């Protein structure tokens, strides 16, 4: 899934590049809770879905947030504050996310002069639980990425569906009001560049992490009314092959350096001590052990000292 090479559009870092696109375009098909199609819209500032109250509006999200992360190769990270009570009463919208592929070959591309193809973007829910209660998308150090479960449709927040049945109501089966709000706290857009064709990308994928809070606590505790939401966009390339080459080059250079050191040290040794070398160390006259008494006398300069007899 992460190595899907279905997107055919070439990209470049600048708009002046010929036959290249310098922006990553995402579009979403929006659906209501009952499945009604609401239309298609660009999806860029939508990640900044929540705002804060005045006078702290500059710390919140909203449509005025920048979209520099859509520039190709421009990794970006940003965070904002979300006022959770503002999510209650807002319409629950589900999105199907697509990347715009202007060079793709899709059915109906030439209709109405539209030259765009929409290629589906997989979504990884970090907090997803399977039937056994496990989290296959946690992706810790011991997790296998092959076990990840991707999905398509998602919502940015949900303050509508967490409505339990209340047996105390007059009408049996009547639903009470929502008790929890589920909201996005972290979004990561991954865009990997293909090694064999640096102007092409693999299909982007999005990681989403959600959190739940009880509306009762949100209403009573002021500290629970706001939360931090983080957004990241990463453009990167698989560098494992590059580092393997660097490791091999390092050991080659290290071996050559060792050989050069041995060669120059041998030359220096020969120039300073000639051929009188033992085990790599110069043999000094004062360090040599005499083999006989006559040799010892020669080393002493030919003089001897006689002891007096008592």
Task: Compose a concise summary of this entry.
The protein has 310 residues and is of the alpha+beta class. The chain has three helices and 14 strands. Strands 3, 6, 7, 9, 10, 11 and 12 form a seven-stranded mixed sheet that branches.
Q: In total, how many domains does the architecture comprise?
A: 2
- Low-confidence runs: none
Which structural class do you get from the secondary structure elements?
alpha+beta
Largest sheet: 7 strands, mixed
Q: Treating each run of at least 4 consecutive H or I residues as one helix, how many helices?
A: 3
Residues in helices, as a percent range: 10-25%
Kindly report the average pLDDT value.
Answer: 81
The overall strand count is: 14
Order of helices and strands: EEEEEEEEEEEHEHEEH
The Rg value, from CA coordinates, equals: 36 Å
Specify the overall morphology: elongated
The quaternary organization reads as single chain
The proportion of strand residues reads 25-35%
- Distance between the terminal alpha carbons, to the nearest Å? 105 Å
List keywords for this structure.
2 domains, alpha+beta
Describe the structure.
The protein has 310 residues and is of the alpha+beta class. The chain folds into 2 domains: 26-238, no CATH class; 243-299. It contains 3 helices and 14 strands. It has helices at 215-220, 240-273, 293-299; strands at residues 26-31, 37-42, 76-83, 94-101, 117-120, 123-125, 150-151, 153-154, 157-158, 180-193, 205-214, 226-237, 277-278, 281-282. The strands form 3 sheets. Strands 3, 6, 7, 9, 10, 11 and 12 form a 7-stranded mixed β-sheet that branches. A hairpin with a 2-residue loop joins strand 13 (277-278) and strand 14. The protein is elongated, with a radius of gyration of 36 Å.
């Amino acid at each position: 899934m992460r190595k899907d090479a279905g997107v055919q559009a070439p990209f470049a870092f600048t708009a002046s590049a010929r036959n290249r696109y310098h922006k990553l375009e995402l579009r979403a098909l929006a659906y209501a809770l009952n499945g009604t199609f609401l239309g298609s819209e660009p999806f860029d500032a939508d990640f900044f879905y929540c705002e804060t109250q005045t006078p702290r509006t500059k710390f919140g999200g909203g449509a005025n947030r920048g979209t520099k992360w859509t520039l190709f190769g421009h990794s970006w990270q940003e965070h904002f504050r979300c006022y959770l009570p503002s999510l209650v009463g807002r319409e629950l919208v589900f999105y199907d996310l697509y990347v715009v592929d202007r060079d793709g070959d899709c059915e109906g591309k030439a209709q109405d002069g539209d030259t765009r193809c929409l290629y589906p973007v997989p979504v990884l829910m970090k907090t997803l639980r399977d039937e056994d209660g496990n989290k296959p998308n946690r992706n810790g150090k011991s997790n296998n990425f092959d076990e990840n479960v991707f999905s398509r449709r998602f919502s940015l927040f949900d303050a509508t569906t967490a409505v339990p049945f209340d047996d105390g109501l007059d009408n049996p089966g009547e639903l009470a009001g929502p008790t929890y709000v589920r909201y996005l706290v972290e979004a990561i857009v991954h865009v990997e560049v293909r090694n064999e064709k640096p102007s092409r990308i693999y299909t982007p994928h999005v990681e989403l992490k959600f959190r739940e809070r009880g509306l009762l606590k949100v209403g009573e505790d002021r500290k629970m009314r706001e939360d931090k939401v983080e957004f990241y966009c990463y453009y990167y390339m698989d560098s494992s092959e590059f580092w393997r080459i660097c490791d091999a080059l390092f050991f080659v250079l290290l071996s050559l350096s060792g050989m050069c050191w041995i060669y120059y040290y041998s030359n220096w040794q020969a120039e300073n001590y000639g051929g009188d070398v033992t085990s790599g160390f110069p043999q000094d006259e004062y360090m040599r052990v005499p083999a006989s008494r006559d040799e010892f006398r020669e080393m002493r300069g030919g003089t001897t000292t006689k002891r007096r007899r008592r």
